[in-house]
User: Which sequence fits this backbone?
């Protein structure tokens, strides 16, 4: 982890919301570097080494790099051929791009709309490096039309010190053609999506393709939520799906391929011993 003390605050944490960290959150102590990627906020700290050189461990040097689109995992990263991999073209992730997603309605939910003429959309947005969220636009037709949401910022944060997630909400009137379909007893599917803009005027891209990389880092394209409006159910009634692994998933709500055992399943083909690649200053651990 590279700590830029003149720009960002780096602290150690032991509690969250008045409770000690659980083991999965980094008990007993973890590093907290606001504005930086989670990978730089190391868990399970037992010693801190101050060094003029960055860590040589694979999590710093390999795992969180943004490679060019023509570099893939099977042919390039699995063998890690230094003759082909241009590390100067694959920067290490330190700060994350602007992002947002819709939390309510949830993915693939059924929303009661009896007598309703509008729908409330809620979600969160964030940008790395302490950049503020200045606006979040929301759409219920897949991004054909947009309107700005109301931002909830209960704490005033300083310039370039905007560490917290920003909540947003918007009550969107349903277009007349959707109201007519609901009045006729039809169920209507909405494609709800959000896009955030930060204080540097960075906007979320529509598609993933131009930003695709083998590590899947810093992917921040529009996230689509498909919700079904049901005029036979009372307004506000919500039914969650039971046949998907998570309420919110990537790729417009569906995994392209099954995600084995929530990501905890090891892959023997690419499994390696991290202690074989320790940094010199860590040899005494």
Assistant:
């Amino acid at each position: 982890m590279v700590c830029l003390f003149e720009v960002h605050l780096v602290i150690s944490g032991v509690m969250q919301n008045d409770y000690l960290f659980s083991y999965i959150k980094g008990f007993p102590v973890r590093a907290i570097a606001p504005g930086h990627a989670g990978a730089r906020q190391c868990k399970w700290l037992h010693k801190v080494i101050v060094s003029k050189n960055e860590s040589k461990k694979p999590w710093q040097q390999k795992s969180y790099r943004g490679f060019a689109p023509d570099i893939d995992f099977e042919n390039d990263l699995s063998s890690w051929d230094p003759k082909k991999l241009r590390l100067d073209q694959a920067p290490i992730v330190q700060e994350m791009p602007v992002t947002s997603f819709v939390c309510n309605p949830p993915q693939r939910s059924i929303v009661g709309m009896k007598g309703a003429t509008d729908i409330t959309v809620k979600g969160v947005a964030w940008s790395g490096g302490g950049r503020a969220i200045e606006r979040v636009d929301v759409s219920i037709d897949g991004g054909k039309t947009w309107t700005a949401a109301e931002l909830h910022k209960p704490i005033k944060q300083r310039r370039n010190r905007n560490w917290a997630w920003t909540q947003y909400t918007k009550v969107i009137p349903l277009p007349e053609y959707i109201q007519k379909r609901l009045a006729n007893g039809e169920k209507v599917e909405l494609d709800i999506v959000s896009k955030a803009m930060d204080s540097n005027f960075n906007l979320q891209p529509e598609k993933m393709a131009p930003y695709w990389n083998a590590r899947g880092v810093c992917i921040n394209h529009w996230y689509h939520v498909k919700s079904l409006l049901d005029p036979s159910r009372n307004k506000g009634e919500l039914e969650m799906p039971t046949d998907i692994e998570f309420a919110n998933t990537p790729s417009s709500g569906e995994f392209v391929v099954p995600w084995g055992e929530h990501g905890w399943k090891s892959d023997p083909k690419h499994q390696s011993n991290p202690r074989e690649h320790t940094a010199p200053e860590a040899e005494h651990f």
